[in-house]
């Protein structure tokens, strides 16, 4: 009786253990592409780990999470940059914005069409990304590190709405602090002309 009881009890546990699998480890490709479908059209980003492995890995992670979907291009300065990467929901952005990654050493220049993470100091990259709309040597001096480039649809980035200008205090309209605190609840009703990302997905199923 004792043996049968022990077998009956442990068999489901053994079966459960056999069926449970460890989480699948994500291997980020050395080069991968992401298609952004936006309110102005589509563009394709090619991320290159050799340029900035930590930055490319975080970008891959954010795309896997569909983090960019419905996010606004909230800072577009013609002839300079177009910035995005605040989640549509404040609660989600509040969590991710604290998940900093370590800096990558600069390998490439901030030339037109490249993308880099925004930062406020050493080791503060999290989710916000900008597209270089021109060659920005000043950003090289400030150690912003490109992790990828637009390989299709750069003209779409040029068309993103820039009428609201830079963020305060350089500009007069969009308040950076309220963007961080309110996300789309702040941006959408007050700045309806902002272009946005409909969805961002891997090309080739990665």
Report on the structure:
There is one protein chain. By secondary structure, the protein is of the alpha+beta class. It has helices at residues 2-19, 53-64, 90-96, 137-141, 154-159, 176-190; strands at 31-38, 41-48, 75-77, 81-84, 114-117, 129-132, 146-152, 197-202. It has an eight-stranded antiparallel sheet with strand order 3-4-6-5-7-2-1-8. Strand 1 and strand 2 form a beta hairpin. The longest helix has 18 residues, at 2-19. Residues 1-19 have low confidence and may be disordered.
Average pLDDT number = 91
How many beta-strand runs?
8
What is the spatial order of strands in the main beta sheet?
3-4-6-5-7-2-1-8
Q: Structural class of the helices, strands and pairings?
A: alpha+beta
- Hey, roughly how much beta strand do the residues contain? 15-25%
Order of helices and strands: HEEHEEHEEHEHHE
Rg: 21 Å
Count of helical stretches: 6
Write down the overall geometry: globular
Low-confidence stretches: 1-19
Q: What is the terminal-to-terminal distance?
A: 53 Å
Helix content: 25-40%
